[in-house]
Amino acid sequence: MNEEYLPRRKKLTPLQAGLLTGLLVITSLMATAFGPYPSVNDHHDIDIYFQRGEWVNSAAQPYRDVFSEYPQIATWFFALPHIINLERDQLSINLDNAKAGYRQMFSLLMALFLSVTIYLLYGERSDKRWLAFLLLLPASWYFVHNRYDILPALLTVVSLIFLSRRMIYTAFIVLGIATATKWYAIVLLPVFISYLWNTDKKVILRATACYGITGLLIILPTIIAIGWDGFMIPYRFHLSRGGNAESLFHLIAVALKLLGTPEIIIDTILQKFFFLLQFTIAGVCVFVGIDNWEKVIRWSALSILGFILFAKFYSPQWILWIFPFLILLARSPGEIAGIIILDLITYIYFPIIYYLEEKHHLWFPGLIALKTAVFGLWILYLLRFEITSIQKGH
Predict the structure, then answer these.
(1) In sequence order, what are the beta bridge partners of 62?
(2) 3 state SS of 231
């Protein structure tokens, strides 16, 4: 392990952390109640979470009785705002009031998760600790406020920190929980295993078992309650899902169609190829010798970037998955600018251009192409360090 790279941890004081949390909570609740749509509030996904969590109000079974396309921890979590919703009794009387109360509780929880994430990132940096506050940039805060993706992002950060503290088994357990919250976290598993292979081989089997057992314990209640067929509902949904206009897959599919490529090739071969590409970088990292902490963070970032870039269906809130790792890596002004640029491009295309009724027909695809290019440049930039390291024989 590169001890020089490990941060000299300096955390926010309890007073600073309390003030940060209070400010974020108040801002989030005020924004939910009074913020304009769609520049501040976008209730589309929160209302979906409302529906996916309704199983708790009728003692129904998730997936079988109340459809959910999300993994277990997420589906269970969506019930929590229902439980603490002050307007829960309005569910059968005034649905709008019940939804408004749910949104308030949801925003409260997301603000708390954001505060903890900033607190942890601040403490993990040895310099430029203010970079932790880049999570308050427009798009980042917008999606913290309107989506649940800060929760899996927080869990991956916690897992990473446990790994850095040599709390190996706890790190793998938390990573298992993160995977059951948002599936992308599975691409960090090869990174963690590669790191252990090069630093502490004897714990690999037990650590991997901790990850697997955690996942098994999480999915078993679903399998026992509704069977394998019910358990597979969200997986079948995503495997049968097509691409969307915000993905690299869509840009290439459109280009291939213009060149006369049969749709059957696009719908089968191209989709399968992109699915494999999502995990390619994570698979490669097993062979590159991750033997220090900077490489752990860099290959974690690369694996997540690859998963995002090659997804056939892209969602803008996914910047929350990668930003914590880029924040930990950023050193130079150019790297910091790369985070800010990606955030601003994201916010301009969603929600600004996305919801604009009158817009030039090239604005949206142009911004999508630019956003995609920035993701690609980040991958090439981070790979440059590995290529340089190989050339030097390290």
Answers:
(1) 66
(2) helix
- Mapped onto helix, strand or coil, the DSSP state of residue 13 is coil
My answer on whether 215 and 283 are in the same domain is: no
Spatial CA neighbour of 99 closest among 183, 41, 140: 41
Distance CA 388, CA 393 (A): 9
How far is residue 329's CA from residue 211's CA, in Å, rounded to a whole number? 26
Burial of 390 (0-12, 13-18, 19+ CB in 10 A): exposed
250 and 324 in a single domain? The answer is yes
Reported as half-sphere exposure (CB side, CA atoms, 13 A), residue 116 has a value of: 16
371: β partners: none
- Which pTM value belongs to this model? 0.95
Residue with tokens 């969200």: 234
Rounded CA separation 350/356 (Å):
10
32 and 120 housed in the same domain: yes
Cα angle 71, 77, 80; round to 5: 160
Q: Judge if 279 and 381 occupy the same domain.
A: yes
**Token representation of residue 378:** 């980040």
Grouping H, G, I as helix, E, B as strand and the rest as coil, residue 10 is coil
pLDDT level of residue 392 (50, 70, 90 thresholds): low
Q: Which domain holds residue 303?
A: 242-394
Residue 66 sits at φ, ψ, to 5 deg, of -125, 110
Tokens of 172: 């793998």
Q: Do residues 394 and 289 touch, judged by C-beta distance below 8 A?
A: no
Shared domain for 251 and 352, answered yes or no, is: yes
Give residue-wise pLDDT tens across range 255-279: 999 999 999 999 899 999 999 999 9
